[in-house]
């Protein structure tokens, strides 16, 4: 693609963007996507730097002759609704019908920001996507004005069409060729002011909802890539166990078996169907040596973690201490769609299909492993059946590439559910020691010391990956707690780990919110009232007030049941959660109701935001009450959803409400936001219902 | 290997397969019907939930031999042409899906429940075992009640 001269368009607010019209026979415009979503004010200099980049770094919008608006998205859809949110931004500024907007996922690029994670997608795309569409709209209007010989400012746009005062209409598709030749539009290319938004902010159903409910939505395993053969891997019983001997005679003799291939993680079987592949896998005679973690079980890991927590310092003189020590187990990401990757590796090139949050890292890693140039490896990004951080890592793609190369044929590799549960990745186990020092009826110091498990490199295992950028948890200075401090330690184990939705906040902030409740109790204050007087941020106070009011905080509850509350602030957003629990049988508690309130700045799709909050509520319920992984002598005990107890319908709240606090701010992050608040609220509700102090999670483990 | 014939989504199909081959892989790998998803292979996640003679089954645990001369319905066969089944319509109206992977199974489980129990209680809905890792349970509950009210 050649570029015409850049058109300088002032952004609507703090940022400026260069938007290009791209030489093409249809109207095609491009906006750079920075790697840094927090680009400085009026960053002309930064824009100029980006001008030197390739088209690869751009968000590109094309209006087709068939009247479709196509934006190839450099992010992955894993259920968070990003394709719908971006389609809404585009439809808003173009006045296009949402049904005319297509958001396919971009292949792995060579440059730019193609990272999906850290709840950054909406905030990083909000300005460029709207600017892009506004630029396209100005050119379409100008093209219609010239065709009709009317002043451009007299025309309006509506339903993917330009409309004249006399009622004449032209579809964008019929104007796209002439709009592509417009250099200087006759109307403004500025995005609308928020007050005129008709699409952004309106609860909107997912653009792919019909495909999903009819079974038409395609995930990697549903693709019919020519010749790609079903493939599974026999893996050791222990984490990173070593293969000692292999006899594949019986397996190879079975019908439908195409190849048996050794890879670092185990032995792969390529067959005509997954049934044949599983049967042949089970017929392999393999002797495994225990993995490097074999001497260790939960108990030893826990005591080593505990010992790695830095010591709490000396408390302020004359203060009384409220302390808690917390343990969180390993947790599986367990996306419904197990890791699946199709690879077609040839001598001079490779092509892969899989769902990934980090396609550029994946492509580079696969190219290195195969000894190919990066430009010779194509990665097609597929929609994912859930992720929760799991698809930051691309273990299956690496294996599929190695297997395809060795077997000399395209393969469709699927991890079994056992593979997924027993070989990771998982949220690291962590240990926390928290102390609030109280004097004169208030908290004068707050310390949080923590240690978590880190993944040590292991040459026998998969290549160490650098895909995941780990966002830091928010400061623990949410409250006016005087001298706030903390430190972290850790232990390194050869165990496959990965960032899990909300990362460290999911454990650290949950533990802190439990201590906040215990401090309130110690000071004979109501948990909501105590938070109101000690929280620093107006936004957090506002969401707490909303959740407390909507959830009827303090209503009389029967014995054995209770309400609990918690808050969190991160990604430029604030959230509060109120949970009601029925713990009349303390061994079998049920969260009966959850009310959440969030301020995420501009909520592009309130219905999507509500869905994200709902998901985090169930994550909180699961990780606090039942869902965790045990390590027994170097192996994960659990093997599927039969024993990894992620919540089912009977554990989900009978009532769920999400309240979105209106805000004129630019969008913050939302996808991970709710986890710590939900987990904290569930733990606090359990504590109040049972009169216990929850310390080790999941509680029923 | 022998051949098995059954009615799939209204059409008679015949496949050559080992008797113990699970229906799931017959559907997905031999017939290209990919709506039913693999999530565990042992009938506990229920992402593959479909119907056999109108009753709920988990095709990952049903051998193809058990389906001979019977009627199999997957998510692809639930709608009447372009007219969605009331459960599918309720799923759309409530915008249930997030990642969508478990939803064909959830919808087939809900349709089977409403077939047995046209007006399910919360306790009836609680008995649905299908896992949704995105946690869409509240909207699933709402959609089932909506479909029930609409005669699903």
What's this, in brief?
The complex is a heterodimer of chains A (701) and B (152). Chain A is α+β, with helices and mostly antiparallel strands and 701 residues long.
Looking at the structure, the CATH topology of the largest domain in chain A is Aldehyde Oxidoreductase, domain 4
The total number of structural domains of chain B is: 2
Number of strands of chain A: 31
| Helix percentage of chain A | 25-40%
Oligomeric form of this entry?
heterodimer
Helix percent band of chain B: 25-40%
Shape of chain B: globular
Which architecture of the largest domain in chain A does the CATH hierarchy give at level 2? 2-Layer Sandwich
Order of helices and strands of chain B: EEHEEEHHHH
Radius of gyration of chain B: 15 Å
Relative strand content of chain A: 15-25%
Largest sheet of chain B: 5 strands, mixed
- Adjacency order of strands in the biggest sheet of chain B: 2-1-5-3-4
Largest interface (C-beta under 8 Å) = A-B, 63 and 60 residues
The rough form of chain A would be described as flat
Question: Whole-Å distance between the termini of chain A?
Answer: 57 Å
Summed up, the helix count of chain A is 16
Let me know the largest β-sheet of chain A: 7 strands, mixed
Protein described:
- The complex is a heterodimer of chains A (701) and B (152).
- With 701 residues, chain A is an alpha+beta fold.
- Chain A folds into three domains: 7-210, Aldehyde Oxidoreductase, domain 4; 220-291 and 339-414, Aldehyde oxidase/xanthine dehydrogenase, molybdopterin binding domain (Aldehyde Oxidoreductase, domain 4, 2-Layer Sandwich), CATH 3.30.365.10; 299-331 and 425-697, Aldehyde oxidase/xanthine dehydrogenase, molybdopterin binding domain (Aldehyde Oxidoreductase, domain 4).
- Chain A has a seven-stranded mixed sheet. A six-stranded mixed sheet of chain A has the order 1-2-3-4-5-6, with helices on both faces. In chain A, strands 24-23-22-15-31 form a five-stranded mixed sheet, sandwiched between helices.
- In chain A, strand 1 and strand 2 (17-21) form a beta hairpin.
- With 152 residues, chain B is an alpha+beta fold.
- Chain B has two domains: 2-77, Ubiquitin-like (UB roll); 86-149, [2Fe-2S]-binding domain (DNA polymerase, domain 1, Orthogonal Bundle), CATH 1.10.150.
- Chain B is 32% helix and 15% strand.
- Chain B contains five helices and five strands; from the N terminus they run ββαβββαααα.
- Chain B has helices at 23-30, 86-93, 103-116, 122-126, 137-149, and strands spanning 2-8, 11-17, 50-52, 55-57, 71-73.
- In chain B, strands 2-1-5-3-4 form a five-stranded mixed sheet.
- In chain B, a hairpin with a 2-residue loop joins strand 3 (50-52) and strand 4.
- Chain B starts with a strand and ends with a helix.
- The relative contact order of chain B is 0.17.
- The model of chain B has no long low-confidence stretch (mean pLDDT 97).
- The chains are: A alpha+beta (701), B alpha+beta (152).
């Amino acid at each position: 693609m050649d570029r015409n001269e850049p058109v300088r368009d002032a952004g609507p607010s703090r940022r400026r963007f260069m938007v290009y019209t791209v030489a093409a026979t249809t109207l095609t415009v491009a906006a750079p996507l920075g790697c840094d979503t927090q680009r400085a004010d009026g960053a002309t200099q930064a824009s100029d730097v980006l001008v030197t980049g390739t088209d690869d770094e751009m968000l590109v919008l094309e209006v087709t002759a068939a009247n479709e608006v196509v934006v190839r998205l450099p992010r992955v859809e894993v259920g968070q609704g990003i394709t719908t949110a971006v389609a809404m931004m585009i439809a808003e500024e173009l006045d296009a019908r949402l049904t005319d907007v297509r958001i396919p996922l971009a292949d792995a690029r060579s440059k730019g920001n193609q990272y999906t994670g850290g709840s950054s997608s909406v905030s990083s795309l909000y300005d460029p996507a709207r600017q892009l569409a506004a630029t396209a709209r100005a050119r379409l209007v100008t093209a219609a004005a010239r065709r009709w010989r009317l002043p451009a400012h007299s025309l309006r746009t509506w339903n993917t069409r330009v409309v004249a005062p006399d009622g004449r209409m032209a579809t964008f598709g019929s104007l796209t060729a002439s709009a592509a030749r417009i250099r200087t539009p006759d109307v403004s290319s500025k995005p609308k002011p928020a007050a005129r938004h008709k699409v952004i902010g309106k609860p909107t159903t997912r653009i792919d909802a019909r495909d999903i409910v009819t079974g038409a939505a395609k995930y990697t395993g549903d693709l019919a890539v020519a010749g790609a053969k079903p493939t599974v891997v026999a893996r050791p019983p222990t984490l990173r166990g070593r293969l000692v001997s292999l006899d594949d005679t019986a397996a190879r003799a079975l019908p439908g078996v195409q190849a048996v291939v050794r890879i670092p993680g185990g032995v792969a079987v390529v067959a005509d169907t997954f049934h044949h592949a599983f049967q042949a896998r089970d017929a392999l005679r393999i002797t495994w040596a225990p993995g490097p973690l074999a001497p260790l079980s939960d108990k030893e890991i826990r005591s080593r973690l505990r010992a790695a927590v830095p010591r709490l310092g000396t408390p302020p003189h004359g203060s009384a201490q409220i302390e808690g020590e917390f343990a969180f187990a390993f947790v599986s990401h367990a996306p419904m769609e197990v890791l699946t990757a199709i690879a077609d590796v040839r001598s001079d090139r490779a092509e892969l299909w899989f769902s990934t949050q980090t396609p550029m890292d994946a492509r580079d890693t696969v190219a290195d492993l195969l000894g190919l140039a990066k430009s010779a490896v194509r990665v097609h990004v597929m929609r994912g059946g859930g992720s929760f951080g799991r698809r930051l890592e691309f273990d299956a793609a690496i294996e599929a590439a190695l297997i395809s190369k060795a077997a000399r044929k395209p393969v469709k590799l699927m991890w079994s559910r056992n593979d997924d549960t027993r070989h990771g990745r998982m949220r690291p186990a962590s240990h926390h020691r928290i102390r609030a020092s109280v004097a004169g009826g208030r908290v004068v110091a707050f310390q949080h010391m923590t240690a978590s498990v880190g993944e040590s490199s292991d040459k026998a295992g998969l290549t160490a990956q650098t895909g995941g950028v780990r966002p830091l948890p928010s400061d623990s200075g949410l409250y006016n707690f005087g001298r706030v401090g903390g430190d972290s330690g850790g232990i390194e184990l050869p165990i496959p780990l990965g960032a899990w939705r909300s990362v460290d906040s999911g454990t650290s902030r949950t533990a802190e919110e439990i201590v906040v409740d215990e401090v309130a109790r110690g000071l004979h204050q109501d948990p909501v009232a105590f938070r109101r007087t000690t929280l620093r941020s107006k936004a957090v106070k506002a969401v707490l007030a909303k959740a407390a009011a909507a959830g009827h905080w303090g209503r009389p509850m029967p014995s054995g049941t209770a309400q609990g509350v918690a808050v969190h602030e991160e990604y430029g957003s604030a959230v509060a959660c109120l949970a009601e629990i029925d713990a009349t049988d303390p061994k079998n508690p049920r969260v009966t109701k959850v009310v959440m309130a969030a301020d995420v700045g501009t909520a592009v799709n309130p219905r999507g935001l509500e869905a994200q909050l709902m998901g985090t509520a169930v994550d909180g319920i699961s990780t606090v009450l039942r869902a965790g992984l045990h390590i027994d002598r170097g192996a994960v005990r659990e093997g599927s959803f039969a024993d990894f107890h992620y919540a089912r319908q009977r554990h989900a709240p009978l009532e769920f409400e999400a309240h979105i606090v209106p805000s004129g701010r630019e969008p913050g992050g939302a996808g991970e936001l709710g986890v710590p608040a939900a987990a904290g609220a569930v733990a606090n509700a359990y504590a109040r219902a049972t009169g216990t102090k929850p310390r080790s999670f999941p509680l029923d483990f | 290997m022998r051949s098995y014939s059954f009615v799939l989504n209204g059409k008679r199909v015949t496949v050559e397969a080992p008797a113990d081959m699970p229906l799931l892989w017959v559907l997905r790998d031999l017939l290209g019907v990919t709506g039913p998803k693999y999530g565990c292979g042992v009938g506990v996640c229920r992402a593959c939930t479909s119907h056999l003679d109108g009753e709920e089954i988990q095709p990952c645990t049903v051998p193809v031999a058990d389906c001979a001369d019977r009627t199999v319905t997957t998510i692809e066969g639930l709608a009447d042409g372009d007219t969605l089944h009331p459960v599918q319509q309720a799923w759309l109206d409530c915008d249930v899906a997030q990642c969508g992977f478990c939803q064909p199974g959830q919808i087939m489980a809900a349709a089977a429940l409403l077939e047995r129990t046209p007006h399910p209680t919360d306790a009836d809905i609680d008995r649905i075992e299908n896992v949704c890792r995105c946690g869409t349970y509240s909207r699933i509950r709402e959609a089932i009640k909506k479909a029930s009210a609409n005669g699903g």
